[in-house]
Design goal:
348 residues, alpha/beta, Rossmann fold, 7-stranded parallel beta sheet, 3-stranded mixed beta sheet, 13 helices
Length: 348
């Protein structure tokens, strides 16, 4: 296939590109706006590989740019949309950015798929929307299933839910070949240091405080990025049109447990932890059932401890990568998000 990967220079997108190109004969067009959360350097390994590089084309651009999107979609057999504003904290500070990319951008992609010429064999292009478990809202009982109602409680989650609904509406209204994946909390190499795992790893490496929200008992299902990328491939190849596929890992951990695992692997003391004021509307637990994707033959391959160890090792070995992302703009964001909280924090 010729696959257009939107957001392919970001965290999950770049790993999907690497693993898909390395395991198939597909070719890819990566469309990425190269915001703070993406980087051309995330594709260096692919572009340096003589067997992979000829099958990769990079385009710097915006999924909200209808003309660019239409041109690239017409040159592809399938579209995988990983482009998103994904950070809850930033969406609280600036919800308009999440609305623009996660809703308006999705609409632009769906319109391009709808209006593109048919493929040579008469098929319509497959559109895969990468979404999140957060659209379900907090889970207080049995894990959420794909048929459960949506109850997002942050601007980020609400924008992703809206994108999902636009995607499903395109299937019902225009018979587009769409599938949606909803992944659990993802961690691994090349994740921007604003997120909990890389933030705590990089702060701990520098001996800086780890700002742990509230009591640290918020529970998430943690999935390693390689497993998430492979699950997206599985749904792209075998998912039923108009269907949603949860991507759980079965590794529920409280934030305090994740923090402990990071410190243990780094050999750093618990005294680095600071209990800070919780963020507004912080959901206590996310959990999803995964029988539907299991029926396609996918299951997670990475144990939580192995994934955390691998991630810690990667950040240790790629200090230049994360330091260049902790620039002046990062300092401004960090002060806005954590400055006051850390000033009033308690230890441990």
């Amino acid at each position: 296939m010729r696959i257009l990967v939107c957001g392919g220079a970001g965290f999950i997108g770049s790993r999907f590109v690497e693993r898909r190109l390395g395991s198939t004969d597909d070719s890819m067009i990566v469309l990425d706006r190269l915001t703070y959360a993406g980087g051309r350097d995330n594709l260096e390994a692919v572009e340096a590989d003589q067997s992979l590089a000829p099958r990769l084309r990079f385009v710097e651009g915006d999924i909200c740019d209808a003309e660019t999107v239409a041109r690239l979609v017409a040159d592809a057999d399938a579209v995988v949309n990983v482009a998103a504003e994904t950070h809850v904290d930033r969406s609280i500070l600036d919800p308009a950015a999440a609305l623009r990319t996660n809703v308006v951008g999705v609409h632009a992609l769906l319109e391009a798929v709808r209006t593109a010429p048919a493929l040579p064999d008469g098929r319509r292009r497959r559109y895969l929307q990468v979404s999140t478990d957060e659209v379900y809202g907090p889970c207080e009982g049995d894990p959420h299933r794909e048929t459960d109602a949506l109850a997002p409680r942050s601007p980020y989650a609400a924008s992703k839910a809206a994108g999902d609904l636009f995607t499903l509406a395109a299937h019902e209204t225009h018979d587009l070949d769409v599938v949606i994946t909803r992944g659990a909390n993802t961690y691994g190499r090349r994740q921007h240091p604003e997120k909990l795992v890389p933030l705590f790893i990089t702060n701990a490496i520098d001996g800086q405080p780890l700002p742990l929200y509230g009591d640290g008992q918020q529970r998430r299902d943690w999935i390693f990025v390689d497993d998430h990328a492979d699950a997206i491939s599985t749904v792209l190849d075998g998912g039923e049109a108009g269907s949603i596929y949860n991507i759980p890992a079965g590794h529920e951990r409280a934030n305090v447990e994740v923090t402990r695992a990071i410190l243990d692997h780094l050999g750093r003391p618990w005294s680095l932890v600071r209990r800070v004021e919780d963020r507004p509307g912080h959901d206590r637990r996310y959990a999803m059932a995964g029988e539907r994707i299991a029926s396609l033959g996918w299951s997670p391959a990475t144990a939580f401890d192995d994934g955390i160890r691998s991630t810690v090792d990667w950040y240790r070995e790629h200090e230049a990568w994360w330091r260049q992302r902790r620039d002046r703009a990062w300092d401004d964001y960090y002060e806005q998000q954590y400055g006051r909280r850390l000033a009033t924090a308690t230890t441990g």
